[in-house]
User: Fold this.
Amino acid sequence: MVAADVEMSDTPAKAVAPAAEKASAAPPTAESILAEVKRNVATIDKAVSAKDMRLLSRVLRGTTRVRHGVAPAVLASLVRSHVMDSDAKKEALAALTALPSPASTSDADVGMDVGADVGTDAPSSPCTPESGAYLLLLAVMLTVDHRKNAGGSALAVRVADALVAHLSQLNRRTLDALSARAFFFYARAHELAGSHAAIRPQLLVAYRSATLRRDVATQATVLNALLRNYISFRLYDQADKLLSRAPFPETRSNNQLARHLFYVARVKAVQLDYSEALTCLQQAARKAPQKGALGFRTHVAVMAVVVQLLTGDIPDRSTFRVQEAPMREALAPYLRLTAAVRVGDMSAFVDTVEQCGASFDADGTRSLIGRLRHNVLKTGLRKLSASYSRISLADVAERLLLPSAAEAEAVVAKAIRDGVTEATIDHEGGWMRSTDVGDVYGGPEPSDAYHTRVTFCLNIYNEAVRALRFADGAAEEESVEALRARLKEEQELAQAIADGEVDDEDDGDDY
Assistant:
């Protein structure tokens, strides 16, 4: 972490800290949001003229706060005065006019304040295409947020389509970050409206164009949108082909990487590659924001529990003891499922699937949970083999809820072949006889496992040594002003990452 007090000051830190905390905790007002939007527009124009895209990234990091605070009437006035004439501007103005105004602000006050502010500071000519795209992007966000109103989804689709078409006509590298956000909300708006199957060709064209232009931000966003589109329609073979032929760019944001790892885990889990899926889910949980993005973190935790059960392991109890109440409520059915799999109780497993089937369907884990039936049978059969030296196949079928003794015999035979239990089958008498297990420490298995762990630790040590980098002593020293500017930007970025605001396109419930 970068130190908070970069510049020297005569004011004591103890006196400044409470005032800063109080100011940061105060909710933003309509005037402050309007001033911030206008300041962001000026910052984007400055970033384009100076060719410094770090300023644009700083503006986009605060989009979440502006998105939830700006009023539709205020944004409509800004769009009317700052954005160049285009179809996207007409659609945005029509949508913003149709959206309801906040109850806390009257229409007369909003119109008077906006007219005064915009009229005095509005430029004689429209601003740069980048600042106009930023205002249009805010309009798309507002229509997506008001999708539950009458016709809200249709308005969001129209504005998103117009914005994507407008940006496709402007071949400017300074629009890459804004174009990536626009394509995210383009896919999100169509998904909410139920028309996301029709945009698949457009996304493929956008991915090809972004790859040819080396637009890394749009390339990563569109690739994730395509994977999400395929997974929503259960087209896992197409998603796997896309993953094999379309590599994910190396320089990308953490949030896009977390989404990509989650989608890869979904595909790998369906294709029975549980170890790779579990690794991707663990990396996605580490890359996701620790504050915010509750919906995404909940989906990752749910999938991690199911995949870990499919690998044969039992999740730790602390996995279900989370602080957030919505996540703890979402994990409650999977806690019951884990308890049934751990003890091999087939009746509890069937009851959990029947009672919590709606939750499993909503999470998209119903088909994976159906595969856990074999794990429950193996655990139950292992317990029966350890408890009884001889038990009839009819009793095995009754305890494991199998339809007949013949199917119980087939299950026992498969378990013996897979090495799940040490037993023999008496076909004539209809019995399963357990055999004594030999000394497991007498063979080479313990030494092989120990050798594997030692090799893993040594590889980690060697990679850490190779990753060491030393500063070049001949490098030129930074000036005091450049050092202060760099430290301030790193501090803002670290704070944004801690708050979960970096590249936070969605509303937290999307994954």
